[in-house]
Design brief:
This is Aminotransferase class I/II-fold pyridoxal phosphate-dependent enzyme. Residues 30-376 form the Aminotransferase class I/classII large domain. GO terms for molecular function: pyridoxal phosphate binding; transaminase activity. Keywords: Aminotransferase, Transferase. This protein is α/β, with parallel strands linked by helices. The chain has two domains: 4-43 and 288-385, Aspartate Aminotransferase, domain 1 (Alpha-Beta Complex); 45-284, Aspartate Aminotransferase, domain 2, CATH 3.40.640. The protein is built from 13 helices and twelve strands. The strands form three sheets. A seven-stranded mixed beta sheet has the order 2-8-7-6-5-3-4, sandwiched between helices. The longest helix has 20 residues, at 289-308. The chain starts with 11 loop residues before the first helix and ends with a helix. It binds pyridoxal-5'-phosphate (PLP). Pyridoxal-5'-phosphate binds next to α4.
Length: 389
């Protein structure tokens, strides 16, 4: 029944994790789920009131087909204010129904069967999936502790670089919450020009950066617009994940290709959601500053509690994730299954993000501090029981 295209897609570990979680719940155990990156905080009240006001207007339930006139200028203003990047609203910005969907359709619009795409391992799964569904081939760039969790472009064989059509980068990153300095993006632009491939910078966590730091936008680098685009959405910055609204900005050729495909596949985003997104983008940073403080405080709590248990993990400079090396000599899935069955705490095994994720787990900060503290206590007792501390 399934198309050949789907043969490479497995339900694998995500389904297994969900099934086991269900069983643990049925046994009456309270589950603390730190495995899914779904923001738990509400959007700013003004975003919600804009959405509900427009939802009362019966004339706004038709297809929108494309972005409302104010959306692209609001994105352009946001990038000019936040990143000093100039964007042409009509040619260098395209609204997408979330970064996930946008990335999927992007691969279909750019990749020909047999084309290579360079994808980090570990990496956010849609990059690999979208390339494979488009008939492309994936070359995995390892992200390891030894290379500081940065893609080493100089270690990719020249024969692959010559065949590459796309490079996916994701900073601030998921699952590895790393920030990249401008010099890394300069290197990316240099390689993209030299080997004639395009760059997709997934900037979904752009504003969720701690300790008064700022993320570098790929488009700040001279020459970047000639070689690439940046995806972003309102999901994490404005806590509007369920609204499914995002955008891609930068290289016109890429945007035109994606826009052509979407003109056939997409009928536009619900008008009230677009108005709420416009309100969010125009609000400056006042709508997400408090979120950053909350995530930073959760991060500090979790790191402190893990340290108390003798589990010394990297302090993430950004995002809602901690990437933690497993303290026991078991696989990451085994660690997560045992932890869940013993304590009800659910973490995501690193191997779910690629071969090089083995040996790590991802801990999400998407629960209130009381819950996180409870989870860390349970983890502490679990590690004690395993004889690790
Ligand atoms: C790195 C990364 N890119 C893209 C997405 C998808 O985001 P959106 O809600 O914009 O589709 C996520 C969601 O978790 C993510 O972590």
């Amino acid at each position: 029944m399934k198309s050949d295209r789907l043969q490479g897609l497995s339900l694998g570990i995500f389904t297994e994790l969900a099934n086991r979680k269900q069983k643990v719940k049925q046994q009456g155990r309270k589950v603390i789920d730190l495995s899914v990156g779904n923001p738990d905080l509400p959007p700013h009240p003004r975003i919600m009131s804009t959405l509900s006001t427009w939802a009362q207007d019966g004339s706004k339930y038709g297809y929108t087909l494309h972005a409302i006139p104010a959306f692209n200028p609001a994105v352009a203003q946001f990038y000019s204010d936040r990143y000093n990047v100039d964007l042409q609203p009509n040619q260098e910005i395209l609204q997408v129904p979330g970064t996930q969907d946008g990335l999927f359709q992007l691969a279909l619009s750019i990749i020909n069967p047999g084309d290579y795409a360079l994808v980090t391992d570990p990496g956010y799964p849609i990059y690999e999936t979208s390339v494979k569904l488009a008939g492309g081939r994936v070359y995995y760039i390892p992200l390891t502790e030894e290379n500081g969790f940065f893609p080493r472009l100089d270690q990719i064989p020249e024969s692959i670089l010559k065949k590459a059509k796309l490079l996916f980068i994701n900073f601030p990153g998921n699952p590895i919450p790393q920030l990249a300095p401008p010099s890394f993006f300069e290197e990316v632009v240099f390689y993209a020009k030299k080997f004639d491939f395009k760059v997709i910078h997934d900037f979904t966590y752009s504003e969720l950066v701690f300790d008064q730091e700022r993320a570098t936008s790929f488009l700040n680098i001279p020459g970047a617009k000639e070689v690439g685009v940046k995806f972003n959405s309102l999901s994490k910055t404005f806590h509007m994940a369920g609204c499914r609204i995002g955008y891609v900005v930068g290289n016109m050729e890429i945007i035109q290709a994606l826009s052509l495909l979407m003109s056939h596949t997409h009928y536009g985003i619900f008008y009230p959601i677009q108005k709420a997104a416009e309100e969010a983008l125009k609000s400056g940073d006042s709508f997400y500053r408090s979120h950053i403080r909350i995530y930073q405080s959760r991060r500090d709590l979790v790191i402190k509690e893990l340290k108390k248990s003798g589990w010394d993990v990297m302090n993430p400079p950004a995002t809602m994730y901690i990437w933690a090396k497993i303290p026991l000599s078991v696989s990451s899935t085994e660690f997560c299954y045992r932890l869940m069955e013993d304590t009800g705490v659910v973490l995501k095994p690193g191997s779910a993000f690629g071969k090089n994720g083995e040996g790590y787990v991802r801990i999400n900060l998407v629960q209130p501090e009381v819950q996180l503290k409870k989870a860390m206590n349970l983890i502490h007792h679990f590690l004690l029981k395993q004889g690790w501390v």
